[in-house]
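WP5 quarterly update. Target: DUF2306 domain-containing protein. Source organism: Chitinophaga caseinilytica. Length: 216 aa.
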Amino acid sequence: MRLILRIAAVVAILYASWLMVLLSLPYISFDPYVDFLFTKQLVYKIHHWRWSFYIHVFVSTAVLVAGLFQFSRYLLQRFPKVHRAAGYVYAVTVIALSGPSGLVMGYYANGGVWAKVSFMILAVLWIGFTIAAMYAIYRKEWKKHADMMTRSYALTLSAVTLRFYAYMIDVLDISVSPRAAYIWIAWLSWTLNLILAEYLIRRRVFTSWRAERISA
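Structure tokens (predicted):
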């Protein structure tokens, strides 16, 4: 049963990554009047926001896939160099590109101050957990590294859960104002992920075999 759940999770994340690719394709034209950008006309002219948006959109899939590799038992045991390479790609991308660009986008987010606060906290925690994971591996603190990577990737998946919750509100036709819905989604997209991450950490779902293999 546990194996089935793991396979289902991997398939779901890979499918979500493919959807992220499809969502990012319209922005390759750099047309300011495409999809989400229709709602950002007041800030599109701001250079650092515009650069942050395109960076965030175009590297999102790489972060999702590279992070997923970190939780492959088979990859860690059979191809540890690939595991490490993917880990460095993930960490550098989050710390230098995705995290900072997310922080800028959070500052200019739709939905008012509460949505802005949520996305900015998300970006800071995302960068912080990833730095902590890299520092732990530098100090050979294997368990802490595994725990911090679990938290970091939980926040990475907020890009997926945010869109999932938005889709469910539309499908279920929940009676709520667009502004209120966006604020709720902004917070739930990452807080519920972190709660699940803490549950997995306490159950030592990833920690034991990751720590055992890395320290070998």
